[in-house]
Each structure stands twice: as C-alpha cells, then as structure tokens.
C-alpha cells in the first residue's frame, strides 16, 4: 500500500472515532480546501474552454489518446 493510501485509511479510521472537539480542529485546519469554491474568473475560463471544444477551435483528445499520452510520459 502506498503512503498516501495508508494515510487516508488511517485518517478515515481516526475520524470515525474522534470526539467532536478534535473533528472541529481538523475541519478548521482544512476548511479552506474543503469548502473551495471556483472564482467567477475560473468559471468563465471553464465556459470559454467548453465553447472552444464544442466549436472545434481547440484540440480535444479521446480517452484513449489521453491514456496513450500519459503512458508515453511515464517511459
């Protein structure tokens, strides 16, 4: 098992039994990441990229092409 997976498992187990005060402390520590919201600028970029994809002005890749490219990067 890799380190990240092991840490997730340990945290899940701990959170299941932690008291409320410790849960609140963990939440405060991670609150900004847990409650992340996209900015209007980010949403506009998403819409622009989608429009470019739909009208064919940007390059798009099939899932198979993406997997092939990722595997080639790993070599």
Structure write-up:
By secondary structure, this protein is an all-alpha fold. The chain has 4 helices and no strands. It starts with a helix and ends with a helix. The relative contact order is 0.05.
Instruction: Give the low-confidence spans.
Output: none
Question: What is the number of independent domains?
Answer: 2
- Name the overall outline: flat
What's the count of strands?
0
Structural class category:
mainly alpha
Task: Supply the key terms.
75 residues, mainly alpha, 2 domains, 76% helix
Present the secondary structure layout.
Blueprint (H helix, E strand, L loop, with lengths): L2 H15 L2 H15 L5 H15 L8 H12 L1
Explain briefly what this protein structure is:
This protein is an all-alpha fold and 75 residues long. It is built from 4 helices and no strands.
